[in-house]
Design a protein that fits this description.
Helix content: 10-25%
Largest sheet: 7 strands, antiparallel
Strand content: 25-35%
Shape: globular
CATH topology of the largest domain: Thrombin, subunit H
Number of helices: 12
Amino acid sequence: MQGLFKHASVSLLALMLLLPAVAEAQIKTVPESQMQMQLSFAPLVKQTTGAVVNVYAEKTIQRQSPFAGDPFFEQFFGQQMPNRSEKQSSLGSGVIVEANGTVVTNNHVIDGADDIKVALSDGREFPCKVVLRDDRVDLAVLKIDSKADFPTLPIGNSDAVEVGDLVLAIGNPFGVGQTVTSGIVSALARNQVVKNEFGFFIQTDASINPGNSGGALMNMKGELIGINTAIFSRGGGSNGIGFAIPANLVKVFLASADSGVKSFERPYIGASFDPVTSEVADALGLDKARGALIAKVTANSPAAKAGLKVGQVITAVDGIPVEHPDALLYRLTTAGLGKSVNLTVMESGHEQQLTLALARAPETQPRDQRTIGGRTPFTGAVVENLSPRVADELRMPLDSTGVVISDVEGGSPASRLGFEPKDIIVSVNGAEVKTSRDLQEIADSDPELWRVEIERDGQRIRQFFR
C-alpha cells in the first residue's frame, strides 16, 4: 500500500512538473483540423473594438493672392482679391488606452490641426486636445474632452511578439467605417520604412490602408502590440506589407505624456553609429552582419564615460540582440531616462560587458536666447547657443556647435531675407560668431555692410547685405 501511495505521489509530482511545460507549449499552436480552421475572431473583436476610435483633424491654410508682393497690383486689385483661407481635413484612427479618455494615435494624423475630434464605434463624438506629440517617433497622445469613462485596450509586451503570430488590425480605412482585418506578424525590427528618425517596426500582412494610421495592431489576447503607421505601396492601397510602431515604445511615450512634459526626450548617448555590413563583419571577426558600429564618441559624454570606443560594435542591450543602429536607439529609448543598461560590445573578436547611463541631453552652455532687433539683416530672428539639448529640440545633429536661429518672426527683415530656423550663423564680416552675445554685439555696432556666412543642412552659404 505504501509502495502504491509512493508511486502515485511520484506520478502526481511528475504530472505537476510537466503541466507548466505543457501549458507553455499550448500557448501558440497551428490549426490542426477543419473545426479549428472555422474558429471566429468575433468574440475578441466585440471585446476590443470599442476602444478604437476614428480621428478627424481639421486645419486652416492660407491661400496667398496671386498679386501679393506686387505694389502695382496690390494697389489696384489687392482689396478685391485678399488672401483666402481654406479648411483641410484628414482622417485617421486612434486607440483609447486609459479610461479617462487618453488616446494614442500617429503624429502625422493630427499634425498642424486646429480642431481635432474623435468618433467612437457607438456613434458618440468628442473634441480632443493634444497632450504630447513627436514627429520623430510619429506618435501623439490626445485627451478626450469628457468626464465619462471609456473602454480601453490594454497595452501588451511587444518584445514577446514573434514572427508568425496571429494579429488583428483595427482602423477606419478610406473613411468607410471601422474595419477589422487579420494576418500574421511578417517580420520584426524593420527599419528604413518612413522618412523620420525612428526605424523599428513590426511588419504585418494584415491589410492596412490610408485611414488605418493610428489604429490598433492587436494580438490574440486582446492586447495592443502596435500602432499601425505605414504601408509599403506604389498605388496607395494595401499590398500585404504594413508596419506598426511597437507597443513598448508607446508605453514610454504615454508615460512621458502622463508626467506632463512638453516634449518627448530620448536618452543622450554622445555617440554616432553605422550599420555593420558584411565587409565590416568579416574585418571585425563577427559571425553575423548585425549590430551598431561606433563611428564617433563625444568627449565627456555618457558613451565616453561607459568606455565605448570608435570601432567597437554593440551587439545587444540587456541581453536583447541589436540588429542595426535604429534597433539600438529603440532599445535605449524604451529602457527609459534615468536608467542604466548593460551593453554587449565586440572588439577585436572579444566580447565585453559595459554599463551605459541613460541621461537627458545636456545644456553644455547656457542657451542665452536673444531676439535680434534694430536695423540688421537678423532683425526678427531668435538666436541661441547650441548644445546637445538645443540641438535635440531643433532636430539637429547633437554634435552641432555655434549659434543657431531657433525661430524667425513672420514678415520680419530676417524672414524676408530668407533666414530659416536651424541656420547656424558661422561668421559676420569675417568675425567668428561663437555665442549669441557675439551676434548681439555686432548688431549693436550697426555696421554699414554685412558679410554673413551661415551653415544650412551641412552647406555653407555666404551673403552680402547693406
